[in-house]
Amino acid sequence: AWLFALVLSAKLHIPLPPYQRIDTVKISQxxxxxxxxxVSGDRLYAATAENRCVAVDxxxxxxxxxxxxxxxxxxxxxxxxxxxxxxxxxxxxxxSSHLIALSGDRGKTLWSLECQEKASVMxxxxxxxxxxxxxxxxxxxxxxxxxxxxxxxxxGDPREVxxxxxxxxxxxxxxxxxxxxxxxxxxxxGLPIWTEYHSTIAEGSLVVHDGVVWMPGEQGSVARxxxxxxxxxxxxxxGPVQCGAAIGEKFIGMLSGQIG
Length: 260
Hints:
Blueprint: H1 2-12, E1 34-40, E2 43-48, E3 53-57, E4 63-67, E5 73-81, E6 84-91, E7 97-103, E8 109-115, E9 123-125, E10 128-134, E11 137-142, E12 148-153, E13 164-170, E14 173-178, E15 181-186, E16 192-196, E17 207-209, E18 212-217, E19 220-225, E20 231-235, E21 243-247, E22 250-255, E23 258-259
Antiparallel strand pairs: 1-2, 2-3, 3-4, 5-6, 6-7, 7-8, 9-10, 10-11, 11-12, 13-14, 14-15, 15-16, 17-18, 18-19, 19-20, 21-22, 22-23
């Protein structure tokens, strides 16, 4: 992470802050592995190799709580919003997969929703949490009623693995990369707006910024306006990338240590 920040700073001429290690906290017995994680405010929520979920105060580096919310399931993704921590899980053997909501202050299970798909990536927006609850279906789960508000079929490339690489919710739309295609749908009702076919990306590389969707795929990059779908530009020589970000008016991608 430090090397990435150093190279990125050199590329964009951004002065680095004077980082220094303040303290260290051990949050997992399996020291070689830290799973899904997210930061909300001054707290870090993370899954460990023991299928536990922990909350760490980033000011004091004290572990606030440590719970086993999924004894027969592995955590795939974590999001935090409005004082609630959301987990998606994959069940072992005959165990089911779930979307699980925990209280951010104590880690107590608030509610859960059974899923027919392995742990999905998630996005939160418009009063809903968006995830793939069963193969080929995007669901919008209402954050207040905990019920599925709508479901929408996802158009996938039959030649690609049927998995969801990224979900981004911004403004009035939600953008999903599933099985090699990228779809944009209306948050209000799940109706499709546009589809970018053959846009296989690495997990976490889809970027939505300032109303623009950047898809650095295996067949090159394309940028579209999120709401209208209008193609802004294509570049067959850029992509794929392992991770992407937007800084100012620039899209930044990293692949095998190279940044561009």
